[in-house]
Amino acid sequence: MEYPSKLIEDAVNEVSKLPGIGKKTALRLVLHLLKRDEDQTELLAQSLTAMRTRVKYCRKCHNLSDHDLCSICASHKRDQSLICVVEDTRDVLAIENTAQFKGLYHVLGGIISPVEGIGPSDLQIDSLIARLQGQEGEQVREIILAISPTMEGDTTAFYLQKKLKPFNLKISTIARGVPIGGDLEYADEVTLGRSILSRIAYE
């Protein structure tokens, strides 16, 4: 594609590096920014720079935060006895949006994946063990493994279960089954099978 400006081409190339954005979408976004007032584009650039330079990881749970301790870990309203272990910040956001969980989190920063060269030492597993060994660990009674039900996710959950066994805590996983509003005929065999095995009493 021929661009009328080298500066526009450079901007399109950078924007198209974002996930899910191709060259056409990138060009549309760049042209949109050119139409906006210059101060609005400056605000966007400043907010992106501030985000990149000032956002940090919570020293306790490794969630993204503006401060050393994230708002969830700093809240006195959260249940200190529950820790939900997740893969990344997107999972924290998804669970928080349900407004059903009032405990704390621990973000692993990924899952074990030998194919991608990611082992246990590359994840925030040692820091989870350190949390349980510290003063906070005395309050914890349950660890919830909220990890995606993939082969890598199950491998990670199995590894964590072995590492957590000496602490004599209740270790649970999120329920897996047929989604509400879904038809049984369209459910895959593994999901349907797990739904049968994890059946609950009808009330």
Automatic annotation (TrEMBL):
Domain Toprim, by residue range, is: 81-179
- Keyword terms: DNA damage, DNA recombination, DNA repair, Metal-binding, Zinc, Zinc-finger
A single GO BP: DNA recombination
Q: Which SMART domains match?
A: TOPRIM
What's a Pfam family in this record?
RecR_ZnF
Q: Which GO terms describe its molecular function?
A: DNA binding; zinc ion binding
Report the stretches of sequence that form zinc fingers (C4-type): 58-73
What does the protein in this record do? May play a role in DNA repair. It seems to be involved in an RecBC-independent recombinational process of DNA repair. It may act with RecF and RecO.
Question: What is stated as this protein's family in its record?
Answer: Belongs to the RecR family.
Q: What is this protein called?
A: Recombination protein RecR
Q: What is the lineage of its organism?
A: Bacteria, Pseudomonadati, Bacteroidota, Cytophagia, Cytophagales
Name of the encoding gene:
recR
